[in-house]
Amino acid sequence: MPSNPPLSPRAKTRRRLAVGALATALLGQLLAGTAAAAPSVQTSPGRIAWTPCEPPSGKSDSATFECATIKVPVNWKRPHGATIDLALTRHLATDPEHRIGSLLINPGGPGGSGVDFAFQAPAAFSPELRARFDIVGFDPRGVGRSNPVTCDQDLLNAQRNAIHPDSASSFAALRKANHALGEDCRRLTGPLVGHMDTASVVRDMDAIRSGLGEQRISYYGVSYGTLIGQQYAELYPSRIRAMTLDSNMDHSLGPWSYQKTETVAAEESYGQFADWCARTPSCAIHDRDARALFDSLYKRAEAGELVLPGDPPQKATTVDLQELVVGNMYTPSSWFDFAQRLKDIDAASPAAARAVGKHGDPTPFAYYPVLCQDYDFNLPSYATLARHERALARLAPVTRLSSIGWDDVVGCQNWPTKVTNPQRGLQVEGTPKLLVTNSRYDVATPYPWGVNVARQLGREAAFLTYDGVGHGDYWRSPCARDAIDTYLVTLQTPRTGTHCPAVWPTEPTAKRKSLTGDLVDPLPGLLGTGTHR
Prior knowledge:
The structure is a single chain. By secondary structure, the chain is an alpha/beta fold. 37% of the residues lie in helices and 15% in strands. The strands form three sheets. Strands 1, 2, 3, 4, 5, 6, 8, 9, 13, 14 and 15 form an eleven-stranded mixed sheet that branches. Strands 7-12 form a two-stranded antiparallel sheet. A two-stranded antiparallel ribbon has the order 10-11. Helix 17 (478-490) links the parallel strand 14 and strand 15. The chain is globular and about 65 Å long. It starts with 26 loop residues before the first helix and ends in a 7-residue tail after the last helix.
């Protein structure tokens, strides 16, 4: 995120989920690798052909990275039908003599690029992990360089404008806008849009494992990437060496439980910010009650009397404020800027209208195509949604609701593709010990989600709590990072119930600066347009 994030990153939307099964004997016939940085090269069945490549920035020794593609079926139920190419990148182990194997990674979304995640490995992951593993990132189907789903920007804007209905008629208009957007994504992208569920991604990931020539893989997934990992463990338990699930999705939740936990997480996270500001003299609103300030801004936005400072000034809505809160709770390193932003908004005078955004272009957008095939969020009527909204406001008297939870549930109403991987509890048996971590105050994947995932995994899981605020424990807590590194390298898990202390910002810093030392937090840069978690 930029140091002063826009209040309405609505078109930057969403992420997650699911699982399936298919005879692995088919995989050897299906996998044809292609070098991403060179002309297509056919390779022997079942193996990936790698060629040296450089990250987009070009700031790397070209020998460090290799790129490739691998073919997978559009529809895993028809393995000999149409295929797409998945893009892959790997950062080669810096200590090849002590290399353990491949560490597959996913940064979340749905919509985050695993290829770009791997390109950032030198700055984002510890020297220990980089020494012992080939770090392998892939763009999931429909994302980034892997046949990206695209949708018309006009229809995305129309859907965003309809996302907060206030009557039965506007709820009907929202349903119509959702359906039109989904159909347009299918028109621009093709049949892949009907096969974006996480169950398909899980099968893709096992095809990658086979193409790597690995009998068992290690995996690190954060945010939506945890859902890929959870369901991979469910389907392929014997093919896992180690798996860290950092900031967990919970695929067992219905629409009310989902919104409720997200909303409580937003309220509690903002409360932690308010308490930090009260005890931090250098916070720009240290002399104010941050909870009361937000309530005042919210009421002014409701009355149409709030603007965002800028050139030109832009009228602010209550939705803008809620999104500003959520965006700045991902990492406390943004809190000095966030506090100043609230102060500036409070001081701004009512003025000109919001600037007009870009329209009409095909825009990468994988979020709802995945989410709405993984979660059945259908609500019977506007009356049900309105009842939810009133109950959420009682649970969260300051922030009122979570923009993530709301948009996920409301955005899937009347989505045109089938829910092919609906909610259910995990049934995992026969894996090695899996490491599950969650922040106590995580605005994107609430703490109860991690607790519930660990409960569902049972004896297969070791659960670690980071007692601070933020999303992606690896970059929030030196304690959590060390536990994850130790586990992935040695397979030694922390004792279940371990807590890592909160880390609070003490001075303004670059937003992507990790609190875990010299590492750079890659998530804000990876989860841009078309993603949320």
